[in-house]
Amino acid sequence: MEQVEPRTSWTFVTHHARILAMILRDPEIRLRDLAAGCGLTERAAGAIVRDLESAGYLTRARRGRRNHYEVTPGTLFRHPAEGRHEVADLLHLLVDLGPRAGKAGHPPGTGV
Asked: How many Cα neighbours within 13 Å face the side chain of 56?
């Protein structure tokens, strides 16, 4: 049987979801760090942040030289198939999957 190469041009998590999760993890994250974390240009990451802000998924406030982001609680998915579910449920899963210190001294991924 012939082996088929895996398709690498798509992922389950969109750049919009990934950026929103990164902002939830670090509300003062820099645009360049968002871009680097998603493999995007700063311009593309900025466009996504503006998309999310204009759709009501986050707010942005200037604090000195930095932006401070806040994910809007209670927002729902945009597609009717998931529209009754809160985006926060997915974001918390993604934040738990991301690199960060373990809870109460436990390494990440231990489920504790």
From this structure: 8
Is residue 7 very low, low, confident or very high in pLDDT (cuts 50, 70, 90)? low
- Average pLDDT of the segment spanning 58-70: 94
3-class DSSP state of 62: strand
Domains located in the chain, CATH noted: 15-97 (1.10.10.10)
Asked if 24 and 95 touch (Cβ cutoff 8 Å), the reply is: yes
What is the rounded distance in angstroms from the CA atom of residue 112 to the CA atom of residue 99?
A: 15
Q: Is 70 helix (H, G, I), strand (E, B) or coil?
A: strand
Q: What is the DSSP secondary structure assignment for residue 23, as one 8-state letter?
A: H
Question: How far apart, in whole angstroms, are the C-alpha atoms of residue 84 and residue 80?
Answer: 8
